Amino acid sequence: MNKHSLKITPGCEHQISQDAISQAALQVVEGLQQAGFDGLLVGGCVRDLMLGREPKDFDAVTNATPEEIKGLFRSARLIGRRFRLAHVRFGREVIEVATYRAAPSEVDEDRGGHMVLSEEGRLLHDNVYGNQTEDARRRDFTVNALYFDTRDASVIDHVNGMDDLRKGVLRIIGDPATRYREDPVRMLRAIRFAAKLGFRLEKKTAAPLRELAPLLQDVPPARLFEEVVKLFHGGYAAETYELLRQYHLFEQLFPLTDQGLALEEEHFPLTLLPRALANTDSRISEHKPVTPAFLFAAVLWEPVRIEAQHLMDEGSSWLASLQDAAEVVLRDQLRHVAIPKRFSFPMREIWAMQARLERRGGKRAFSLVEHKRFRAGYDFLLLRADSGEADPELAQWWTRFQEVDHEEKQRMVSQVSGGQRKRRRPRKRKHASPH
Ligand code: ATP
Ligand code: MG
């Protein structure tokens, strides 16, 4: 166990301004304090405030039990299966309020009644309340375990997190392998924070990642879905992807994609996925909407494309092949990361659209632009064209089709309906066929 002493940094020695803290978060901690409980901000919000970043959300912590929290705030709802906590709502903002808890390694036998570990050492329930020091030590990374006391603006640090924050180091608290075994998602969180903060993974924190990566197989697919979305929709998807691959975590999440990429790289580097992730990052930085459907369509495109190619080699049409390939790939993928139907359905449409966009004759082009998924399908085609996989002329045709007036649209359609270039099979990749 780490030997750390308590350090308190007074308000005058750091740059957190009270203005950066949400009113709702202030009301929650003040409400707790007025009732005689501890009420502090903790975790990512303190870390982000210290770094001069805007926190995504605010988490509070207290020594009050969830029932006591509920008694204090009318809008409080108790939630959570793995551990219980309260959500306190102020208007549109929700503040998560947790009761101090202890980590399993900190708890002696007689308090461990609620603590359940799986055979692999995975933490199944950790509803054992503790004190603030214990609460700090059960958190994942030192920079995520800082407490902010709004009364005097001091930062309370039990784990040397301030030092790491200054140095730009992401360090797991306690014995790395034990902490990853307790909750394998911490491996993904390590990558997410390293990419987002631009922090260096401390040596011992990084050391067990490759070996323990397979533990992700024990994590419920629904939880992995949430985590994957956070990984790739956090604004740093490109770096995150590189790190996930470097530490062999990506293959645990998307084994089919990983196989597809390995196969492909023997011939020439693949750029669709990195491009898609870079696009996602720029959309997020421009505050444009992003959807998990497009993200997962891009992540799984390589195995879908390879499978569709096999089916086409057996004589199926491009559209039917894509639809069947989608089935095959999704069936396997859902065992690892659960993709809710509201996303997997549009994903299939985006893929099928890749065949539909090639058939532009008659009224087809006119009805296709009206399709709910046209925009996503077209954006996906652009990605494929930019990656050297789809015909750039086809992409340009659709770009122009959207810009010109009705008469010109008809002229464009009559030109392609002329018969010269109707359905065009995608370029065949060397490896896709054994011949
Ligand atoms: P974000 O900016 O993504 O919100 P965050 O650090 O606030 O980052 P949350 O998932 O909101 O992350 O969790 C809040 C805090 O709870 C973390 O800072 C950390 O202290 C603790 N925590 C969350 N998940 C875990 C975990 N799996 N194991 C240990 N501690 C965790
Ligand atoms: Mg948070």
Tell me what you see in this structure.
By secondary structure, the chain is α+β, with helices and mostly antiparallel strands. It has two domains: 178 residues, 2-Layer Sandwich (Beta Polymerase, domain 2); 181 residues, cca-adding enzyme, domain 2 (Orthogonal Bundle), CATH 1.10.3090. The chain contains 22 helices and twelve strands. An eight-stranded mixed beta sheet has the order 1-10-9-2-3-6-5-4. A two-stranded antiparallel ribbon has the order 7-8. The radius of gyration is 26 Å and the shape is elongated. The N and C termini lie far apart (59 Å). 40% of the residues are buried. The C terminus is likely disordered. It binds adenosine-5'-triphosphate (ATP) and magnesium ion. The site of magnesium ion has 5 residues, from loops.
Element layout with pairings:
Elements: E1 7-9, H1 23-34, E2 40-42, H2 44-50, E3 59-62, H3 66-72, E4 76-79, E5 85-90, E6 93-99, E7 115-117, E8 123-126, H4 132-137, E9 146-149, E10 154-157, H5 161-167, E11 169-170, H6 176-182, H7 185-197, E12 200-201, H8 203-206, H9 209-212, H10 221-232, H11 237-246, H12 250-253, H13 255-265, H14 272-285, H15 292-299, H16 301-313, H17 318-333, H18 341-356, H19 364-370, H20 374-386, H21 392-403, H22 406-417
Parallel strand pairs: 3-6, 11-12
Antiparallel strand pairs: 1-10, 2-3, 2-9, 4-5, 5-6, 7-8, 9-10
Bound molecules: adenosine-5'-triphosphate and magnesium ion.
